[in-house]
Amino acid sequence: MALDEAALDALFRNARTHSTFSDTPVSDEELKALYELTKLGPTSANCSPARFLFIRTEEGKKTLRPCLSGGNIEPVMAAPVTVVVAFDPHFYMKLPELYPDADVKPWFSGNPDLAEETSMRNSSLQGAYFLMAARAMGFATGAMSGFDKVKLDRAFFGQNGWKSNFLINLGRPKPDETLPPRLPRLPFDEAAEFA
């Protein structure tokens, strides 16, 4: 079943990157619901390497602040939640339960380069699924790079060994926010080919 025009508008055409948000908090239940939608998106061999850290306390933001590039500090500090989309470099340890039809764990356990490439690619996919799930649930999002990965990973992932990929600021849109026009996108003939 194809989505109607209103849904396509909400997910794509009218959606923008937000840098400010309303002060309304995002609840645990809402974050869990976002994850429940996100986890349904496909990944190669169902590897599901993405891990999500939801930073929303004053202490968490204080720890995150020195990891950020200067231009990202203000939007991150003001967002109700900053999501660190990360990945578990040892995601393949979960493959026996996630992909029980075949023994694919050795594909990755003996090949760290393939494991790194797979976890980065698929956690990026899962981060995009998270963005779309958030838009579908009426949240405003602002994805960003612009942080020191080594510093962030040391600050937050010293115990579990996860590695950061990118950040997403998350909250409810400000009712009076005026968003800038969409920046240009490449036309089809500059970005796609038929073969």
TrEMBL record:
The keyword Oxidoreductase applies. Keywords: Flavoprotein, FMN, NADP, Oxidoreductase. Residues 14-171 form the Nitroreductase domain. GO terms for molecular function: oxidoreductase activity. Pfam families: Nitroreductase. Transmembrane segments: none annotated. InterPro entries: Nitroreductase, Nitroreductase-like, Nitroreductase_HadB/RutE, RutE-like. NCBIfam families: PRK05365.1. PANTHER family: MALONIC SEMIALDEHYDE REDUCTASE RUTE-RELATED. This is NADH dehydrogenase/NAD(P)H nitroreductase. It comes from Acidocella aminolytica 101 = DSM 11237.
